[in-house]
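Hi everyone,

Forwarding the result from last night's run.
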Amino acid sequence: MRNEALELMAGEEVLRKSLSTTPDGRPLARRVFFDDDSWQLSDEFMPLVQAHAEYLRANPKRIAFVTGHTEGAARQRRCWLIGERRSRAVVRALLDAGVKPNQIVGLSKGVMKPGAAPDGHAACYQRRVNIQYLAPEDVRAKLVLAPGAPSWWAKRSTRRKPALRQTR
């Protein structure tokens, strides 16, 4: 599995550096990688973010679904928070590049849907943001709460606890 993750990362790097696009102009590279416990967008990924921004400006009916991911080395809430901050960093960069706010949906997946096995070198593959394009009607189906999201915890904390019996 480690070799598979390294091959995926190498393929993404080739696509990112070449800025290859589909015939309609959508960039083929769609992953932005981060350092461990970091949500700072590095300068090497700015050309890729700019390419995605150009595509979104040229296609105002498309929506970018930006999901932040992390490896599962920490607690659920921390993983969710890091994924959220990573997705916000990319969303902020897209907004700064002139994309309309209604064209971007940012979401943290935390440790959900890992991209590869969490072993040594492959763990860096999980510290990423994915950029996926959807039609407006498909966005609602993709909004799945990640364990660790505030609303996910709120649902669990509102359960009624059984009342304790009083003894005399």
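Helices lie at 2-18, 46-58, 76-96, 123-126, 139-142, 150-157.

Cheers,
N.
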